[in-house]
Amino acid sequence: MKKLIYLFAAAMLILNTGACSDDDSDSSATTTQAQPDAEVNEQDAEAETSTTDGEEEPEDLTDLALALDDLPAGWAENNSEGDDSDPVECLEPLDDNDDLEGTQTGEAEVAYMRGTGVPQLDQLLVELPDDAEASEALDLIAGVIEECGEFEESDDDGEAITGQIGRVQLDPIEGAERQETFQLTATTQGINVSAAMVLLQKGPYLTFLVLTDTGSFDPAEAAEFATTAVDKL
Prior knowledge:
By secondary structure, the protein is an alpha+beta fold. Helix content is 25%, strand content 30%. 34% of the residues are buried.
């Protein structure tokens, strides 16, 4: 499930742009302008033809994902281009995993930010064929993340990024049948980033929320977003 590891890439991308912001403050701001219609249409056409022959296109679950109206005042859509690189080597087992790829019957991705780029909220919502498959997928994903521990990567300039991924306590989310919560913390050039990743199951649905901020994320805010996300399912 390549899209899942991109959620962690959001934290690493914020770390990279923050480290470069001393020389050019404008370069660290996340653009929110919509893409030209022609470019959007071209990307949509590519997406429609990118599935393997014989596979049905997953249903669009955008209506079930978090909408801007679901968030407090001050949040905006984040239309910036994502980071297509693998964020952390230990998450690579989630990339093109045969037990995950092609199993979802529906999916949606949304991204929001507050201010000039942080905090940032990303959501991936997927629907599996049934509750059992959703639970098995959650077990697999949580197991890979839990094995990460400490890591060291390099940013685009070759500067070291050190950090760790581990479990973190979050209040139980009402309505969720299963809940797994992790925290990513990373540092480079004196800049600290923290990201909460909340994995939730409700029936055949799995929703993955990543709340990223410089310094530390707000657990209460993460729980609030998670509760709203589950309520929409």
